[in-house]
Amino acid sequence: MKINVGTADRIFRIILGLVLLSLIFTGPKTWWGLIGIIPLLTGLLRSCPVYLAFGINTCTLPKQEQG
Hints:
Number of domains: 1
Shape: elongated
Low-confidence stretches: none
Strand content: under 5%
């Protein structure tokens, strides 16, 4: 799996995922909060399939260190 999510992008995705998941328990209490799993997983795994498809890379690691 290629690393293509940078640090700032990763932090944003994790926070967004947690906020969306919290909608299941607070606020409108809807199942739409499960959408938060997607940004949370891409942030934790540091890999985004959509970025891969479009050739986007926000990670600043040298090419050798990327899996």
